[in-house]
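Please check what follows.
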Amino acid sequence: MPGEKQTAVKYYVGVDVGSASVRAALVDGFGTVVAHAEQPIQVWEPRPDHYEQSSADIWAACCSVTKEVVRGVDASRIRGLGFDATCSLVVVDKQFQPLAVNCEEQNHRNVIMWMDHRAASQVERINATQHRVLNYVGGAMSVEMQPPKLLWMKENLPESWEKVGYFFDLPDFLSWKATGVTARSLCTVVCKWTYTADRGWDDSFWKMIGLEDLVKDKYEKIGNHVLSPGEAVGRGLTPEAAKDLGLPEGIAVAASLIDAHAGGLGVIGADVKGHNLPCENQPITSRVAMICGTSSCHMGVSETPIFVPGVWGPYFSAMVPGLWLNEGGQSATGKLIDHVVRGHVAFPELEAKAAASAHSIYTYLNSHLDLIKKSLPVGFLTVDLHVWPDFHGNRSPLTDLTLKGMVVGLTLSRGLDELALIYLAAIQAIALGTRHILEAMQAAGHAITTLFLCGGLSKNPLFVQMHADITGKPVVLSKEVESVLVGAAILGACASGDFASIQEAMAKMGKIGRVVQPNHEHKRFYDKKYEVFLKLVEHQREYRSIMNS
């Protein structure tokens, strides 16, 4: 109305560092992504199971994408900045300069990636201690967590170890670069480093595994100042970081989150009224957020601690303040689908036909499956083709990094039909793995009724439908596909003081887009597929026992 004062729109910046790229988004107070940018980052694989990155390369990409999304925006309207990232390990010296995590002494390669499995023998020794902290990681620590990587570095790179000033989880490195404050997020230290919200660090654990030198300096190298996710860090953005990022000096910077947890924050608290979902009028504890990208994470919360064998946690306040978090996961999902498709002899034909039709290879494959299914439901095409998906070991619920992938039902056919079928079977195997995780969580005491999906794989309608059909649960997709970025922006919004709590920001900024219901007529078929799925791992363990006897 004329003369009526209009409220200026407030914006928040979310920055997400994934495995292969950095993304940023400008998000308004209603959770709408106004601008989005992405830039690839480098990954080195110097030897099998070794994956490394550069913190300088990552920060440069953060600066580039942030400048892009805020270009032309009134700086006074940008209220806060939030980071999320993969739980990779960043190593710097006492002057905060990059320090090599490799035998080649390449200092710029100073990040051991989350998916790096070099510390297999170290994690085996850690798990053999049966220390009490392992109760909070499903009974066995993963090779993807930080203590085994630290132990590997001490044992294999003693010269670098002596020079170390700080070890950061990547999300905490980013908040340090932005603020100059070495505070760590409760999310990272609880989920990946064995910190607990009530007791802090456990000296006896670090001494028992041979890392007593971290205790001596009162944990300065790994963090002795811990903040809750979304809490404001220091005095906000430093002048140097402000210039690098193209943002105003002093704006609020939030204590960060691991990327999967940011995705959970972006979707799990959305208002579901009017969608006829079983979680309506139920507590948030009836929901699981599934973040599906290179790998997948399954985030479930509870009011009291639930110990789930083979599932990480319970972690107090690691994602939603005041609630306990359990985190299941699959180490290779998007990466597995890419591996299966791109490694097939018919991939060049697929690539050419997809390009000619101006579709992505996965859209083309989905259409091709519709062509060859005839009168059958698409999923039934794999009646004789079965995949065990642990090509990179099992994270949950078996916690066995030595497990291998399996394919049963191969023929001599080499065409596009066969490529489409193995692609479908791989997607089904991932969904069957999700069912395996959910059943473990439910057996331990979770009451899960609804899945909330986000991440790159949630854009694939076949992936989504298979998860609904195979788990028997409705799948909720967020209105904003980039839920992880919305989650990061929610952190910035909380740090700015514009919302009273993370819960309030989640409800305001998380929006439902579409609901995919399971086809219950297909239940019998997928129950049989699940029975075969469980037999596959039994057979793998049986033949390994024979070969090792």
